[in-house]
Write a structure and sequence with these properties.
124 residues; mainly alpha; 2 domains; two-stranded antiparallel sheet; two-stranded antiparallel ribbon
Length: 124
């Protein structure tokens, strides 16, 4: 079982990494806007105003959102798996657990099986 301390540590790390991924994704979007994503056009009062260039900003927004999404998911699953593995015995592996042997036919069955998978006899 994972302790509360480990759970909060994992939550804090997820939050911090999430902020980092959001900053990276927004950096791509803002960087594209500053370096080629905006063009100056004449506004209604004759002043030059910046207007987004869709051919630059749409791909930049897609890449920024992708970085945020995939980065957050990777962070979540990495920290989740580390928390589970450090906080407990880890996940059980059915391949390493001894199976049950059927008293009637001798076939090996999964741990906790109630009936034999080979002959259907009740497991004791």
């Amino acid at each position: 079982m994972v302790s509360w301390r480990e759970a909060f540590k994992g939550a804090l790390m997820t939050l911090l990494w999430s902020i980092a991924w959001i900053m990276a994704g927004l950096g791509v979007i803002v960087g594209a806007g500053l370096f080629g994503g905006l063009k100056l056009v004449e506004g209604p009062l004759g002043a030059k105003v910046p207007q987004p260039r869709p051919e630059v900003m749409i791909p930049a927004a897609a890449v920024g959102i992708f970085i945020i999404s995939v980065g957050w998911m990777a962070t979540f699953y990495k920290i989740l798996s580390e928390t589970v593995m450090e906080g407990g015995q880890g996940l059980p592996d059915a391949r390493t657990q001894p199976g049950l042997i059927c008293p009637l036919c001798g076939a090996e069955n999964q741990p906790g099986a109630k009936f034999c998978r080979n002959c259907g006899a009740a497991m004791k």
